[in-house]
Write a structure and sequence with these properties.
seven-stranded mixed β-sheet, alpha/beta, single chain, 14 helices
């Protein structure tokens, strides 16, 4: 078992239960089996999970981080491909640079990465913009790993172009009011039980005039809550990614404005696709890399990553892992990790295909000088 999962498994047993079993227990039997449920039962289950968002996020990342780092690298997010010649790594880096650019980050500023994962975006943005970034993660293993990587890259510290990390919950940020010049989140605040509450907490720690930018996971205007297929896709994304409260674009915009921040830019970045040179050419969409479509890859590294995510090959890997477990050569945890990853990948891919889901809805705004805490908001 990989080192991270050994640590996560040990911690889970201390708290009572196998890690895979603990994570699956946050969902109903029907949701774990990917079976449809009446909408009233779905919403009741989602409401209950919102109460346990912190535990679910910790359990999910203890289960998934090794697979994410092995397959996806240090940055746990997606990106559009406006330049079809870009590799996945180059496109991810450009996506991070664009966020720093549109937020107007300047050398010497100090900011917060809310939900930093193992620190890929924070290290890149600190290098690119010459800013100091404090990464905040609810998962202690993420903080340990992010700190290790920063030290290996000689980036750890509290000066310009450096990073540091702290364990904590972005619903209760462990910093005083009016502390940071900027805050950003890359596909992380989707784990909050209430977007307005987390955006308000972020506004609290921003200095007056400070800027907040977020790439948010949202269901688009094409999502129909009365369409069983759409609801089933959202169900798979939430179950496969440990998400407790996926909202719509409309609700996301309302949450941002409800926090008291003054929005100056919003855009579905997932719609930035390159122009077709050939009418028969398929678009290089944000989700092409999880569709197993190797035709858009630009190097062998990307080819292998996309090939591994072909559904047929993924099923082979699942069967092989099952045999390894039966032979006692792999832990049962490995099968739950793969099952969860499969729900995530195919749920997001189908959400992209249907146009009902985006991983990169960009919202950027400033904290006004006259900002007043709007109070609690339940969703």
């Amino acid at each position: 078992m990989p080192k991270q999962n050994r640590k996560g498994q040990a911690k889970a047993k201390e708290e009572g239960g196998d890690l895979g079993t603990r994570f699956a227990a946050h969902w109903t039997a029907a949701e774990n089996a990917n079976k449809p449920l009446p909408i009233t039962e779905i919403e009741a289950a989602r409401a209950e999970r919102r109460k346990n968002y912190a535990t679910i996020a910790k359990d999910y990342y203890n289960l998934a981080t090794d697979n994410l780092e092995m397959g996806w690298g240090p940055s746990f997010h997606f990106c559009p491909f406006p330049d079809p010649s870009e590799s996945i790594d180059a496109a991810m880096t450009r996506h991070q640079h664009f966020l720093a650019y549109i937020m107007g980050l300047k050398p010497g500023m100090k900011g917060l990465d809310a939900g930093c994962g193992t620190g890929g975006p924070s290290r890149e943005i600190a290098r690119f913009a010459g800013v100091n970034v404090t990464g905040l993660s609810i998962n202690g293993l993420h903080v340990q790993r992010a700190t290790k990587y920063a030290k290996e890259e000689s980036l750890f510290g509290d000066g310009p172009g450096q990073v540091q990390y702290r364990e904590g919950d972005f619903m209760h940020i462990p910093f005083p009011d009016n502390h940071f010049d900027f805050v950003y989140a890359t596909e992380a605040t989707v784990y909050a039980p209430s977007l307005q509450a987390v955006y308000t907490e972020i506004a609290r720690v921003l200095k007056p005039g400070g800027v907040f930018g977020v790439y948010e996971w949202l269901m688009t205007d094409e999502f129909d809550s009365k369409n069983p297929k759409h609801v089933e896709i959202r169900q798979r994304i939430e179950r496969g990614d440990g998400v407790v409260n996926m909202l719509s674009v409309k609700e996301g915009l309302e949450a941002f404005r409800g926090s008291g921040l003054e929005m100056y830019h919003n855009e579905n970045m997932a719609l930035r696709v390159p122009p077709k040179r050939d009418p028969n050419q398929k678009e290089k969409t944000w989700w092409y890399c999880i569709d197993g479509d190797t035709s858009h890859t630009t190097n062998w590294t990307d080819w292998w990553l996309v090939f591994w995510l072909k559904k047929s090959f993924f099923r082979f890997g699942y069967g092989f892992t099952w045999l390894m477990i039966k032979a006692r050569l792999a832990p049962e945890l490995a099968l739950e990790a793969l099952r969860t990853q499969g729900m995530s990948v195919w749920g997001m891919r189908d959400g992209g295909r249907e146009g009902i889901f985006t991983t990169s809805y960009l919202m950027v705004g400033r904290k006004p000088e006259s900002w007043i805490h709007p109070g609690p908001k339940e969703e």
